[in-house]
Specification:
mainly beta, 33% strand, five-stranded mixed sheet, 11% helix
């Protein structure tokens, strides 16, 4: 072990022995800090189960689990290849999450918010893939994260009636 490694190890050992918990390990409320939480895509019938459905109809729900208290998310949907992009502007919205802590992220108890979306305006006039439909990328920018505050989810959307899908 090098001299630098021994000094760092000794310093970390002293901090832990003194009861100092590094902020990267735990927050004041006991939960993890930073870019915690996950988003799930939920098709009809909507539920609070923390499962992800990568093939949904044009109307679907986004569920937030395990985020910090009172966080807010900027939500953006964009078409992704192989869907023909055609210069379409992204579809954007904003979501305020609940006030509980970030515990229970992988369970129904960790549900922080749900929002229903209808992507017909985004895909109007765009040709759908004949089998899969539209390939969509969801980007979530969430406040209160330490470090990166971005989450992504890519999924397929079908059942959007528009003039370009046939």
């Amino acid at each position: 072990m090098s001299r630098t490694s021994r000094i760092l190890f000794a310093g970390a050992t002293f901090a832990l022995a003194a009861g100092v918990v590094p902020s990267a390990i735990a927050a004041a409320d006991g939960g993890p800090v930073g870019n915690n939480g996950t988003v799930k895509i939920d098709g009809i019938a909507f539920d609070d189960a923390p499962d992800n459905e990568p093939h949904v109809g044009c109307k679907f729900q986004v569920d937030w689990y395990g985020f910090d208290a009172n966080a807010t998310s900027d939500v953006t949907f964009e078409l992704q290849p192989p869907t023909t992009l055609g210069g379409r502007a992204p579809f954007q919205s904003f979501k305020q999450l609940d006030g509980d802590d970030n515990s229970g992220g992988g369970s129904e108890a960790g549900l922080d918010g749900s929002q229903q979306y209808d992507l017909r305006p985004l895909v109007s006039g765009v040709k759908a893939h004949p089998i899969q439909g539209y390939h969509v990328k969801l980007t979530i920018n969430t406040t209160t994260s330490i470090g990166a505050d971005v989450k992504h989810k890519v999924f397929w959307v079908t059942g959007c009636v528009d003039s370009g899908s046939n």
